[in-house]
Amino acid sequence: PMRGRAVMLLALVKPASAHPQCLDFKPPFKPPWHLEFCNQYEQFGCCDQGTDNMIAERYWDIIEQLEAAGHELCTDMLKEIMCQECSPYAAHLYDAEDPYTPVREIPGLCFDYCSEFHSKCRHVLKYLTVNQLLLYAAERDVTTFCSMVDLPDQDYCYPTVLKSSDLNSNLGQVVEDPRGCLQLCLTEVANNLRNPVLMLHSGDDTHRMFIAEQMGFVWVYLRDGSRLEQPFLDMSGEVLTTPWLGDERGFLGMAFHPKYRDNGRFFIYYSIQVSSELEKIRISEMKVSAYDMNVADPYSERLILEIEEPAANHNGGQLLFGVDGYLYIFTGDGGKAGDPFGKYGNAQNKSALLGKVLRIDVDGSDPSGMPYRIPPDNPFLRDPGARPEVFAYGVRNMWRCSVDRGDPVSGYGRGRIFCGDVGQNRYEEIDIIIKGGNYGWRAKEGFECYDMKLCQNSSLNDILPIFAYSHHVGKSVTGGYVYRGCESPNLNGLYIFGDFMSGRIMALEEDRTTGNWKERSVCMGDTQTCSFPGLINQHHKFIISFAEDEAGELYFLATSYPSAMSAFGTVFKFMDPSRRAPPGKCKQKPLPVKVRGKKFPFVPKELTVLGTNEKPTRPPPRKFKLPTKPPVRSNQIKPTMTAAGNSTTGTAVKVKPKSSDKDTKKKNMLKPWKKDKMLNKKKASTQAKKNTLKQKSKETTVSVKDKVKPKTNQTATETLNTSNAHNGLKDNKIHTKRKIHQRKAAQKQSGPKMTIKESTKEYPAFVNKTKTNFNVRSNRTLTRQLKVKSKQT
């Protein structure tokens, strides 16, 4: 009985479910460069070099203020707390992932750590937050304060979040469910499409996407998601298709010429009917309009090839250009079941164009009158029993093929052609196309024999698929792409594909040492995994096609009702919720697109994991500057005596000694561009002092921008223009970079040293960089207090 209770207790204790998220509500990333300050997060976190520098600058500002006030510096704890903005769990630590609660300025601290911070460093709080309730609680008692800084989920409080194996064991890798299924999320890109059969880019640096519907329309989508009112191409009058559920005929393929930007040529593949009886597939060349880059010239069609189709199914439909510049055409075996045409079927008959991968050169015409040439290295060019266009054979009905653009760094895999070949009764398969290859149909289906007599033929010499799955998993494969994009680094090298009938998405991962491919199951992430703004974790069942944009990001096209006339088609984009690319790395600079007609903005329809009204709106962390003196108004400026005995309105002399070790250390922490920025500020300050007189001491300068501070025992002063001084003070923003021993010297000259309590009253809370935190009433009250203190002094 005791053992049973222990098992029940363990079952109730669930491990923490990891959901790394940054303060910008996006996944963490691996910084591209070394982090100088918050270097514990340089392998994976939420800060790039720029953010790290900003945190360091705020840190040193606070350290200066603490030294000036004579407080304990608390350097280690202060740094640890400030660097939690870089934690991969920053959104949890600052309670930002919950849109219904206010975002914290202090990260969630575990009670023991919070108690230590309260006992040693609570005086630092006023430099970190303007929350008066929190500041009051810190002065009251440790329990009240630490209960306010605590988090509801104890797994995420600092520093426990660093010690949890559940949260840190696979940090930065694709999230897997208990079955090992890779959890991915989606965004909706386009909708209201009638059986979208393909989406492709034109490769002309405009980053437009062209989406073709089965009935013969091709639409232009701009980078902002909007669709142009006029279609790029309307072939609906020529294309053969019906509203029958699952009809395979229609507009099936399209490919832009590699030099489309210069020649405007593209190629299309579609079904036609001749004399109301004979059905064919037609491959044609067309050109873009000379007057509108978003419209094809409807009169430019030039016939390339026509092939008779003996049945309504197995029409193939893929067109693509290889890295060799040649056009590849993928045809079906002619239809019906079991490829019953001829002695061996169309697929094994090299003299037939059906059931083949064809390769032709469309950049010239043949002397015999054909509108294309045969590449000189086609494998069966000198075989009298074969058509010279044949590149590979033995395929059943390849539905969706793609060219691997190669690893973005090494180029590994570039040029490989992957295809999904739809099976007959038992297996679906994925193939890599090679020159002269025999892919086995109808002798084989997947890895198994289909026609026993042909299968046992020793001369078959077929190329085995890299992967096959049974009809228990799915019944109609849809070929995909090898991911080579930028935004989801974890997916690089995965071949992602799906099944039309089951709606299942799958992936293959290559073992480069053996050349074998291993299946990686893909599933939609759960609610917590996909809890990012704009993400969804469900899609329509019937996966028609996959697509790749000009930047290499991956999409798929699906519908809930597979009829050529039903507008239920949607385009989805893959997104890895566990890791993103560093900010700015994937930025594109598309060429401008001249739009002549109307545009329809994209209106999403799918239900997101976070409701549209739940999108968090936290601004970026504020950069605080704490003044060393309260703001001084123009009516507080008192006359001082110059060395010559003349009375003038101005500021006190500021002694500027040599840089201290701390200041040098701070400068070294900054990047070169930060140092240049500081130098530029100094040059601007020097330019603003053109109207001042040279002083006897070389170490004394006056800066109206810094502060106004009357002094009486200086050896020399400067005469300033009264209007300039007034304008400088009017801004009510005071910044200081003065050194600590400089402040101590100023305190000795101006009178007895204030107590910490008095200093707290005198110094206000943080001043926002762009907006003062003081209202007029508080300024007047503060001015009165200063006058009283001045008299006492």
Automatic annotation (TrEMBL):
Intracellular or extracellular location(s): Secreted
SUPFAM superfamilies recorded: Soluble quinoprotein glucose dehydrogenase
Highest rank taxon of the organism: Eukaryota
Compositional bias of kind Polar residues: 633-651, 711-726
Main location: secreted
Folate receptor-like domain segment(s): 31-127
Ranges for region Disordered: 611-765
Name the UniProt record assigns to this protein: HHIP like 2
